[in-house]
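pasting for ref. prot 1 ->
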Amino acid sequence: MQTRDAPPLAERAQLFHALSDETRLGVLEMLRGGERCVCDLQDDLHAAQSRLSFHLKMLRDAGLVRDRREGRWSYYTLNPERLQAASECALSYLCCP
């Protein structure tokens, strides 16, 4: 059963899928310190560019991160509003109604 204010099931599934990978969690952890260039994420996570791009797209599609381009560089930041909503969604599964 879905409550009136809960995101649709597909949106919740996308959110939890985005959080279900060690690399994606590592990206989120790194972005807690502020905006980061993709090249910095690659170096710190020891990830190939193609693999990291895949994970960043999943996080972006779930709304957990935002990106911006500056010349040939891409920079990522956390999306605090979406992270707050994600936290509330996760807690709804752990708490009694």
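and prot 2 ->
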Amino acid sequence: IIGKHHRLFCAETLYKSDEYRHFWESLNQGEFFSGLFPRLNRQGDPLWFRATYNPVFNSDGQLYKIVKFATDVTADVLRNQREQEAAVHAWDMAVQTRESAQNGANVIENSILMIDRMAQGMGAVSTDISRLNNQSESIDDMV
């Protein structure tokens, strides 16, 4: 990587962007940058660098060069992305489970209400049958 142009690791859309132009303008004005930077390997696959961009000045205070120190942290970033995706998936599953449990509780509550109504109706029918039975016995006694 030493001596290679920085642009080799950038997507064309990045190095043609206003953001990228502003980044280099800021560096050329002596601003220091540090952070996580997405880049590409030769095959176009994503790379992630934790890097510092350090303006270096000569004895006259003029910008001499920009020195970049970078560490490839792609594996860490990809692992963090997978963990984040897993956490989002777990959250979605928890929400769905809660909704299913609430729906199940609603079904049970409605079933209990229907059973109570049926029991009340059966109680009324039982009372009517008892009354009819008593009337039938009274009629039998009269006959």
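The first helix runs from residue 12 to 15.
The mean pLDDT is 89.
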